[in-house]
Amino acid sequence: MTGWRKTSSQDNALSLRRFLRPCQRVLGHARRRKWCPIYLRGLMAPPERKSLQSLAEHVAPGQYAQLHHFVTVSPWNDDQLGAVLVRQAQRLIGGRDAVLIVDDTAFPKQGTGSVGVARQYCGVLGKVANCQVLVSVTLATNDILVPLALRLFLPKTWTDDPERCVAAGVPQGHRQVLTKKQLALQEIDRIRQHGVTFKVVVADAGYGNSAQFRGALTARGLTWAVGVPGTQKVYSTKVGMLTERKFKTGRLLVPVPDEPRKSVAQVLHDLPPHKWVSRTWRNGTKGPLRARFAILRVRVADGGELHDSSHPPGDEVWVVGERRPSGERKYYLTNHPANTSKIELIRGIKARWSCGQAHQQLKEELGLDHFEGRMWRGLHHHGLLCMMAMLFLQWWRATPMNSVLNYTLPAARHAIQVVSWHGSSPALLMFSRTGPHARAGPPVG
Fold first, then answer.
1. CB 202 within 8 A of CB 137
2. Which end is more exposed in the chain, N or C (fewer Cβ atoms within 10 Å of the end residue's Cβ)?
3. Under a CB-based contact definition with an 8 Å cutoff, are residues 39 and 360 in contact?
């Protein structure tokens, strides 16, 4: 049994080394190449608290200063390592079945010293609170999901204070005022430049309520499905534009729609009951997930602004209403083609559910929100290493033997802990070029 334990631990170490091989190339300095796998092991290690002090005590006793320097001070290139992460994720789950999920996640904070901290909406608490907010972009296929970007949002209280930004180490190129939507678009562009492919971009109403965001996705040739508030205005697909002459002068007025605009809530409420149909979009842990949906083609009111501050008809899109068993109602817009089946629309819209799971796993399993440093570099280094650790766990889950066992991500982390630090599991952790998800082979460069 002792010999088997030794072999399993060696296999696990070899797998992590193979996984990190392309990462090591961009880290450069030998010390960085040494500390990267150690930090990743710490993130996947048993301690529930993943602060630097806790990690060092578990995986590098007596070497806290070196580990701290690697994460918070060492000037390794985020962009290059991020590019490696993106390309590896594409090989694992990218393609026509993948979805790209835009969202954000918050870290409640005390004090005002941590970079980006401010009084702003905190999704974790469901209210305005003192927190940091990171915009996230996640690639997902079925139950395999990999965060590709975690970008800190800087409120105006920071961008309007250059000295504060300098003190927190915010790079010059990141000190301008950018909305969360603009940050998300920048990250989408970066990810696509590195070859990531997907079928649809999905986002909640915090992003979908922006006509500029939807228009930017359309201009990039992307299919999108986003939540919107019930007050979002639309027209029917039969709407026309009228141009009348001003009385006495005969001057032509600006064209106006020949029908009143309505909210999506009103449009869907006016539909006859038989238009609301029950659909199951996937099986959850507690059984099939079902709700009632109504789907209709409309023209969204997001054209150029009229004299009365209203908006004329824009592109033709789908509006989708959802009535949940709890009585809650949700509304969505999507620019899927007109011939798209209803169940495909619903599945595309509901694909966003996994993003909340990704954020939860990053925090609970890998300690994303446990970082205690205050500087820009340390926070983004820690976030990138957390994403790398999750990618490694997803690769491990997707290997042929492990995919048959259908590990959850927490179970996969526990299994790797057992092999790596206790040597009591007969799991082989070698990557394979076959399997249901690893179509392009292991991430070895």
1. no
2. N
3. no
